[in-house]
Specification:
Layout (H helix, E strand, L loop, with lengths): L1 E5 L4 H12 L3 E6 L2 H9 L3 E4 L5 H4 L8 E4 L8 H18 L5 E5 L28 H10 L4 E7 L1 E4 L2 E2 L1 H10 L3 E4 L5 E6 H14 L4 E5 L2 E5 H11 L7 E4 L1 H8 L15 H7 L8 H8 L2
Parallel strand pairs: 1-2, 1-4, 2-3, 4-5, 5-6, 6-11, 7-10, 9-13
Antiparallel strand pairs: 7-8, 10-12
Helix pairs in contact: 1-7, 8-11
The chain binds NADP nicotinamide-adenine-dinucleotide phosphate.
The site of NADP nicotinamide-adenine-dinucleotide phosphate (NAP) has 26 residues, from helix 1 and strand 7.
């Protein structure tokens, strides 16, 4: 398939780009800067230069494609409006092409809100963090669309590769006396390694039924204190020094989206394993974290 990737230089996007190419797909990726274009070319994809918020500028140069994956996001407060413009331009353009396009929209675990001791599945009602509420009408639009074959993937919190959620812990351990956790030590995070998640995107692109939704979750929910303890063990410290940071402080420092770090969640990735034969290999995030901090 020829696949158009939006967000190909991100934590998830780089892994997806590699996985698509390894599977023999041809990738065309959007790049908003020279630096991003260079990275994409190095990873083996063709480049279309442009910004998701100004699709009219680059849509005319887009070749015919069989699949599109949207995972471009800059986490600022205008992102909802930016992505609306993208979908307004891109979906009709794809419908007008000569091929029926499979379109994967990237949501996220924070659209399910805190689950406490329940385990959320694809059937659970959405209860998005306010900073990501704009995603809900967009994913509904993609799923209901007759213009493309829409599929939604909600990744758990992603680690591995160049970025990911553990980087902050690692940086704290290196630069500060304490590892900062937001909201409390008992907060649980559902997790997935970027390479496993990338395999799920490829499987969904190739096999998922139109209008289906999948949770990309390898580990249902792990307390952040366990993750911090793994770093401490790695560094030979008997007890980790944890500093609990309030949600408000995280939002002030990083932006409203960072309230998600305080979201206590458990999510299940069973549907993807059952329907698509997804077999994530990274099932021990604390071990991965220790390797990352080596
Ligand atoms: N990472 C996670 O733990 C996680 C978990 C659940 C859901 N998600 C969702 O998955 C998506 C991707 O997350 P990520 O962590 O991979 O993000 P990321 O590492 O920040 O990457 C964002 C990507 O979007 C591109 N981008 C941003 N604004 C753009 C614009 N205006 N025009 C063109 N490209 C633009 C960036 O390109 P540049 O190279 O130009 O910066 C980069 O390739 C987001 O919607 C996020 O909410 C992420």
């Amino acid at each position: 398939m020829r696949v158009f990737l939006l967000g190909a230089t991100g934590t998830i996007g780089q892994a997806v780009l590699r996985a698509l190419i390894a599977r023999g797909h041809e990738v065309v990726a959007l790049a908003r800067s020279e630096a991003s274009a260079g990275k994409i070319a190095q990873l083996g994809a063709a480049v279309v230069r442009g910004d998701i918020g100004i699709p009219d500028r680059w849509l005319p140069g887009l070749p015919d494609i069989d699949g599109a994956i949207q995972m471009a996001c800059d986490f600022d407060s205008a992102m909802g409006e930016t992505e609306r413009r993208l979908l307004d331009g891109l979906l009709p353009r794809l419908a007008a092409g000569s091929r029926r396009v499979r379109f994967i929209y990237t949501g996220g675990c924070w659209l399910f809100g805190p689950t406490g001791n329940n385990v959320a599945t694809e059937e659970s009602a959405l209860s998005p963090l306010p900073a990501f509420a704009w995603m809900v009408p967009h994913l509904q639009r993609v799923l209901a669309s007759n213009e493309v074959e829409g599929i939604v993937i909600h990744p758990a919190m992603v680690y591995g590769g160049d970025g990911g959620v553990f980087r902050r812990f690692e940086q704290d351990a290196r630069e500060r006396r304490a590892i900062r956790v937001v909201g409390g030590e008992a907060v649980r995070w559902p997790l997935v390694h970027c390479d496993d998640l990338a395999d799920l995107y490829v499987l969904a692109l190739e096999h998922a039924a139109p209008r289906s939704t999948y949770l990309g979750v390898a580990t249902e929910g792990i307390p952040v204190s366990e993750l911090a303890q793994a770093i401490a063990r790695r560094r030979g410290v008997a007890a980790p020094i944890l500093e609990v940071m309030s949600e408000d402080a995280a939002a002030r420092e990083l932006g409203e989206w960072a309230r998600g770090y305080a979201c206590d969640q458990q999510l299940s990735g069973a549907k993807a394993r059952r329907d698509l034969g997804w077999t994530p290999r990274h099932l021990d995030p604390t071990r991965d974290l220790m390797e990352l901090c080596a």
